[in-house]
Amino acid sequence: MFSVKAKKNFGQHFLKDENIANRVADTLNDFPTLPVMEVGAGTGMLTKFLLKREVDLKVVEIDNESIVYLKEHFPELEGRIIEKDFLKINFDDYFDTEFCVIGNYPYNISSQIFFKVLDNRKQIPFCSGMIQKEVADRMAAPPGSKTYGILSILMQVWYDIEYLFTVNEQAFIPPPKVKSAVIKLTRNNREKLNCNEKLFKTVVKTSFNQRRKMLRNSIKSLLSENSPLPDDPLLTKRPEQLSIEQFEQLTNLLEPLTRQTNKEES
């Protein structure tokens, strides 16, 4: 069955456990009629369960060897294989409605995949699949956790994230050096941030770049030279202690004092 050789440069680890593949496919049960885009179809272990769902399915695969394999073993995929890099796809070329994203994601670009989903969140109400356990832990981490950070906040702003289950290395060919996890992301009700979104991202990233420091020290680089630090209790905390709402408050607090704002005013 595994005539396709896993390639390190594509971050490939082919799932061989049918039970796990079926459980991953079942994460779509809350959105049974929406079109589906599978990322990194590989040898089709997940694909065959997605085909049973009888929805508009597109599969994305960049590896020529995998593409040949899929065409030979799944003739029903005729016209459904997108032979491109997922990160460079224009979704409007394939769907004119909302759709779900699912996959056994290439581990070397998993974070980039989720940030692309994030950038297209109006089209993608749901995303699920397999990633490194470490990345899943970070995405689902609550405030106060050691793994809570930039990825946690930027994803949780727009999606409710649920860590479903852990998958051992032996479920793959070749076995990865890390454990994996299945997660699902469901679009929440937030329509917009209560602050400047661009500055919010900058504040979050700057804060966690020095996560062991109090915020009054880590965000100094954002302030213009003539702007003193405000006297606010938020600045006595470390970034992992702040909720999304508190980061919104912090962004509003800092906006009139930042270099970015002063440059725009001048």
Quick take:
It is built from 10 helices and 9 strands.
The stretches of 5 or more residues where confidence is low (pLDDT under 50) are 261-266
Radius of gyration: 21 Å
Order of helices and strands: EHEHEHEEHEHHEEEHHHH
- Number of DSSP helical runs: 10
Tell me the structural class.
alpha/beta
- Beta content comes to 15-25%
Distance between the termini: 64 Å
Instruction: Characterize the largest beta sheet: strand count, sense, and whether it forms a barrel.
Output: 7 strands, mixed
Characterize the structure shown.
The chain has 266 residues and is α/β, with parallel strands linked by helices. The chain has 2 domains: 8-187, Vaccinia Virus protein VP39 (Rossmann fold), CATH 3.40.50.150; 197-265, Helicase, Ruva Protein, domain 3, CATH 1.10.8. The protein has 10 helices and 9 strands. The strands form 2 sheets. It has a 7-stranded mixed β-sheet with strand order 4-3-2-5-6-9-7. Strands 1-8 form a two-stranded antiparallel ribbon. The chain starts with 13 loop residues before the first strand and ends with a helix.
Walk me through the topology.
Elements lengths: L13 E2 L2 H8 L10 E4 L7 H5 L5 E4 L3 H10 L7 E2 L17 E5 L5 H10 L6 E7 H8 L9 H7 L2 E9 L4 E2 L6 E8 L9 H12 L6 H4 L25 H11 L4 H7 L1
